[in-house]
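User: Okay, second chain of the day. Same drill as before: sequence in, structure tokens out.
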Amino acid sequence: MDNARSASRSRCVLKAEISFAGGAFRQDCIVRDLSETGARLVLKDDINLPAEFRITLTNRPEVSRAAVRWRSAGHVGIEFLGLATAVPPTKVAKLSQKKKLDEVLAENARLHKMIAELTETVATMKKSLKRFSAEAVARAS
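Assistant: Same drill. Structure tokens below.
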């Protein structure tokens, strides 16, 4: 692995999607180091990337062409070759809105679960209180 780089890399943790074969194959990955000229990717699965492919970083509204420069145990060093296509701003906005909606729906589901658990706890406490009251009345008589 050659560490001579034309631009300094910054450590990061960014979600990205790689695609090739005309978009027929898509795979999520994580970008761990990023510079203007390239990146280090962590792949979830041991896939055999072609020499060139496309990558979309979640924080950038464009699709970049990339080339593999090195490979090592689940990590791949890539060089950006230029923009493949720009993603329309409306698509970026829709993706952002979808992400927010997904987060709100997940929070809503979590809160519904919490309400159900609390309702069950209150019902159990009411039963215990009723039983305790009945025992206290029986002892007092």
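The chain is about 35% helix and 40% strand.

User: Thanks, on to the next one.
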